[in-house]
């Protein structure tokens, strides 16, 4: 896997969310156990643009999901517990939901 072109600050934030993922069934709450400052927002945007994460809002909470690329990158950093669970990811009916099964088959074949 190629190393994503992200800043050290973004890498540090990615590592924090990867470490915290186990506390949230794989989908950490943005601003939950990992501090969320206005400065982190730019790093989250960079992680999204690098294809490592997505975010979804539910009842005013922002949840972070790891993409298949994000899972692979997390594993290269030693975070073997970062996975995509069935049902995690885009909401049903959205464009991204149509590829969710394919993502699950690649990351966690059944």
Question: Could you describe the 3D structure shown?
Answer:
This protein has a two-stranded antiparallel sheet with strand order 1-2. The protein has a single domain (8-107), classed as Arc Repressor Mutant, subunit A. It has 110 residues and is α+β, with helices and mostly antiparallel strands. Strand 1 (53-58) and strand 2 form a beta hairpin. The chain has 4 helices and 2 strands.
Helix content: 25-40%
Q: What structural class do you assign from the helix and strand content?
A: alpha+beta
Please write the string of helix (H) and strand (E) elements: HHEEHH
- In whole angstroms, how far apart are the ends? 23 Å
Instruction: Please give the order of strands in the largest beta sheet.
Output: 1-2
Number of helical segments with 4 or more residues: 4
Report the average pLDDT across residues.
80
Q: Outline the biggest β-sheet.
A: 2 strands, antiparallel
CATH class: Mainly Alpha
CATH architecture term: Orthogonal Bundle
The tally of structural domains comes to: 1
- Beta-strand segment tally: 2
Tell me the radius of gyration: 13 Å
Q: Using the coordinates shown, work out and report the CATH topology.
A: Arc Repressor Mutant, subunit A
Global outline: globular
Q: What is the H level of CATH, i.e. the homologous superfamily?
A: Winged helix-like DNA-binding domain superfamily/Winged helix DNA-binding domain
